[in-house]
Amino acid sequence: MRALKRYDRRGFTLVELMIVVAIIGVLAALAIFGVRRYLASAKTSEAKNSVGAISRGAVAAFERETAESQILAANANSNAASQSLCTSANPVPGGAAPPDGVKYQPNTAEGSDFETGTATGGWKCLRFAITQPIYYQYHYYQGTRVPGVTGGPDPGPTGFEAGAVGNLDGDAVFSYFTRGGTVDTTTGQLTVATQVHIDNEYE
Fold first, then answer.
1. What is the pTM of this model?
2. Residue 104 domain-assigned?
3. Which of 184, 98, 179 is nearest to 141 (CA)?
4. Per residue in 103-133, pLDDT tens?
5. Nearest Cα to 61, choosing from 107, 125, 122?
6. 187 in a domain, yes or no?
7. Which of 35, 77, 97, 186 qualifies as a FRET site for 137, CA 20 to 30 Å off?
8. Looking at the domain assignment, is residue 56 inside a domain?
9. Structural domain boundaries enclosing 149
């Protein structure tokens, strides 16, 4: 009969346990960072999509020819139709700063927030509105830049700039998403920036 050799059962050493705990800690830190970055990216997609929609609204408004209402005498001609950018819109929400790490619910009543403007200016001219809560303050300016923006192409006095200003982490640093366009005074054509310009994306 063969004798069975018994092996002493041994547990993990303190060093092995410390290595395992350290690995778990590193993985947890990476997971938390990844989740935070994913959530921030989801929030910034609101700004990117909205700024793109505002700039498309500006282009569509420019391409619509407008003609003034006239009563013509016999043998008279009307004034020629013209193309022009929408005039500037009030920031939504109003005030000097964007929501401070929280969402803002736009007011959908006539004459409030995105329900302001005319056929030739403001949000109604752009045909742009948001009815859901928003993280960013939205801007549209004709002939000037969004306040606080220093980077990206300058559309100049004949252009427009659409923008979103945010403060997701509630500190004193803002994020900016802008896209503009310029009207060539020689050809009368509107040229729009190729993509949204971003400064401090996750602020």
1. 0.79
2. yes
3. 179
4. 999 999 999 999 999 988 999 999 999 999 9
5. 125
6. yes
7. 35
8. yes
9. 32-63+83-199
- 3-state SS assignment for residue 155: coil
Phi, psi at residue 18, to the nearest 5°?
-65, -35
Distance CA 33, CA 38 (A): 9
Sign of CA dihedral 116, 119, 120, 125: positive
pLDDT per position as a tens digit, 2-52 = 555 555 566 778 888 889 888 888 887 777 776 777 777 778 999 999 999
Q: Tell me if residue 168 falls in helix, strand or coil.
A: coil
Task: Specify the residue for token string 């989801």.
Answer: 42
Q: Which two tokens stand for residue 135?
A: 């993280």
Torsion from C-alpha of 99, 179, 42, 129, nearest 10 degrees: 60
**Rounded (10°) CA dihedral 32, 36, 39, 41:** -130
In a domain, 90, yes or no: yes
Residue 63 DSSP SS3? helix
Q: Which residue type sits at 77?
A: N
Measured CA to CA, the distance from residue 169 to residue 166 in angstroms comes to 9
* Total domains present in the chain: 1
3-state secondary structure of 30: helix
In the 3-class helix/strand/coil scheme, how is 91-135 assigned residue by residue?
Answer: EECCCCCCCCCCCECCCCCCCCHHHCCCCCEHHHHHCCCCCCCEC
The answer to whether the beta carbons of residues 183 and 159 sit under 8 Å apart is yes
